[in-house]
């Protein structure tokens, strides 16, 4: 990510600004970043974007060296001097670590928003268990070669990356794939490489697919204990394609409702699209790909949508802090799908999922966690008024007439003309006849005494 982008975003889950090098604060931030998803510390830059008058490289190096001596074990860092329009700063990059890091005084910290937060004993044990699993994403895939990667998918990723970063990718393709972890130093595909770019990822990682099931009713079983589903789809391919196909299947099964507010007709899906996509993307990004024998499951019932991913909550995440905290089990996978555009803003999806559900009149999503799975449940809303298909095709004049009828109980040809003074008498007659033919209105009387009521 470009330094200008970091400056524009300000301090956050993966960014910290320090106008002057502070050994203690720097050590705390290095440990917090290493224990979470990594990050960048910009020395010589204030949170408001002010650049230090003069940043001495020797002073910065001394502060970094002393900070690292208080980290247990030492945190791996890389730093670079960057010239900006306001002056020179130093960017210290901290990768996510597979080890658990603490300070010399025994404190274990993680990055929480724009702060470094200490963990308690139970949370430390939970994080340590996650760290001990190693970096599965970077393991090479037995039997896979670079020929098993799809050039078209790689080209699409590079184009999306250039679009998001607003600058061309200048590295050779193989070098870029090594940088993002898709290839190892010997050019062999890794787990993340096969998942993102594989021609047939499920031939190597069978558990990486998705199963969609649409049940008839609210239970997974039909009469006499028989399977109660009406549609079952097994979806595979590289993760970008898997997400696209899964979304298409869910979209096909979601009802579209037309809601009339005054004279405005608004089409709404059964569930808010962002909430569904976020649940789907989260399942793909954060599932535990080490667990074999189980794929992501999307179950659609009449009253709810359930998205279940194999693997318990990662790191120090719990049901109590899932909204406020962020931790990626698969950070390189998350970064890849972020560059692709499937993730809008790192760490903010759960917040917006809840907001979109509530604003659309649904209950807030519920979450169910077990040691080996995590489920997001989106509840349906049954009491909203669903407008029939014929009403969706009414014109604005006819909708205005219906509103008048709801207020006055009846409408005449003259009253309709008063509502629409710029329309010819013949058009008014055709509009009313159309509403009668559709079974919406009933015609009462004859000739000058004719009026219409809602049928």
Explain the overall architecture.
There is one protein chain. This protein is of the alpha+beta class and 455 residues long. The protein has helices at residues 3-9, 23-35, 57-69, 121-131, 151-165, 173-179, 191-197, 201-204, 239-253, 273-286, 331-340, 349-359, 389-392, 396-408, 413-419, 425-437, and strands spanning 15-18, 39-43, 71-72, 78-83, 88-94, 102-103, 109-112, 115-118, 210-215, 229-235, 256-261, 264-269, 296-300, 304-310, 366-370, 373-379, 441-444, 451-454. The chain is elongated, with a radius of gyration of 29 Å. The N and C termini lie far apart (62 Å). 31% of the residues are buried. The mean pLDDT is 86.
Strand and helix layout:
Layout lengths: L2 H7 L5 E4 L4 H13 L3 E5 L13 H13 L1 E2 L5 E6 L4 E7 L7 E2 L5 E4 L2 E4 L2 H11 L19 H15 L7 H7 L11 H7 L3 H4 L5 E6 L13 E7 L3 H15 L2 E6 L2 E6 L3 H14 L9 E5 L3 E7 L20 H10 L8 H11 L6 E5 L2 E7 L9 H4 L3 H13 L4 H7 L5 H13 L3 E4 L6 E4 L1
Helix pairs in contact: 2-3, 9-10, 10-12
Q: According to CATH, what is the topology of the largest domain?
A: Heat Shock Protein 90
In the sheet with the most strands, the strands line up as: 10-9-13-14-16-15
Count of beta strands? 18
| Mean of pLDDT | 86
The percent range for helix content is 25-40%
The number of helical elements comes to: 16
- Could you say how many structural domains there are in total? 3
- Give the low-pLDDT segments: none
* Percent in strands: 15-25%
* Architecture per CATH nomenclature, i.e. the level-2 architecture of the largest domain: 2-Layer Sandwich
Q: For the terminal residues, how far apart are their CA atoms?
A: 62 Å
The level-1 CATH class of the largest domain: Alpha Beta
* Category by helix and strand content: alpha+beta
Largest sheet: 6 strands, mixed
As a whole number of angstroms, the C-alpha radius of gyration is 29 Å
Shape: elongated
């Amino acid at each position: 990510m470009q330094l200008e982008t970091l400056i524009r975003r300000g301090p956050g889950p993966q960014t910290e600004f320090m106008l002057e090098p502070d050994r203690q604060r720097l050590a705390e931030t290095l440990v917090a970043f290493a224990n979470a998803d990594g990050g960048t510390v910009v020395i010589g830059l204030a949170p408001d974007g002010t650049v230090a008058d003069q940043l001495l490289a020797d002073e910065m190096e001394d502060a970094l060296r002393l900070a690292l001596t208080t980290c247990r074990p030492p945190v791996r860092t890389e730093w670079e001097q960057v010239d900006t329009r306001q002056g020179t700063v130093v960017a210290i990059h901290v990768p996510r670590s597979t080890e658990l890091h603490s300070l010399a005084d025994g404190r274990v910290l993680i990055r929480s928003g724009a702060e470094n937060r200490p963990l308690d004993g139970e949370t430390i044990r939970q994080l340590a268990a996650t760290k001990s699993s190693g970096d599965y994403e970077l393991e090479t895939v037995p039997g896979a070669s670079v020929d098993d990667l799809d050039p078209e998918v790689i080209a699409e990723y590079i184009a999306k990356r250039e679009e998001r970063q607003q600058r061309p990718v200048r590295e050779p393709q193989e070098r870029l794939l090594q940088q993002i972890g898709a290839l190892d130093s010997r050019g062999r595909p890794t787990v993340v490489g096969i998942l993102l770019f594989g021609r047939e990822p499920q031939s190597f990682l069978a558990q990486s697919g998705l199963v969609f099931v649409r049940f008839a009713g609210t239970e997974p079983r039909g009469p006499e204990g028989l399977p109660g589903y009406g549609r079952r789809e097994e979806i595979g391919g590289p993760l970008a394609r898997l997400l696209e196909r899964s979304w298409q299947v869910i979209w096909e099964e979601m009802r579209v409702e037309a809601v009339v507010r005054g004279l405005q007709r608004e089409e709404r899906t059964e569930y808010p699209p962002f909430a569904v996509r976020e649940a789907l993307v989260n399942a793909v990004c954060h599932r535990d790909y080490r667990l074999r024998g189980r794929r992501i499951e999307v179950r659609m019932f009449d009253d709810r949508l359930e998205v279940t991913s194999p693997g318990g909550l990662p790191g120090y995440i719990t049901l109590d802090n899932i909204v406020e905290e962020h931790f990626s089990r698969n950070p390189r996978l998350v970064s890849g799908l972020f560059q692709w555009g499937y993730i809008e803003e790192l760490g903010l999806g759960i917040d917006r999922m809840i907001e979109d559900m509530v604003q659309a009149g649904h209950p807030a999503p519920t979450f169910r966690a077990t040691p080996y799975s995590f489920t997001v449940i989106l509840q349906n809303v049954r009491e909203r008024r669903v407008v029939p298909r014929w009403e969706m095709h009414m014109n604005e004049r006819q909708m205005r007439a219906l509103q008048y009828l709801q207020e006055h109980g009846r409408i005449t040809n003259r009253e309709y003309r008063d509502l629409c003074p710029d329309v010819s008498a013949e058009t008014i007659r055709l509009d009313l006849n159309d509403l009668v033919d559709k079974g919406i209105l009933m015609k009462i009387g004859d000739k000058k005494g004719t009026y219409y009521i809602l049928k």
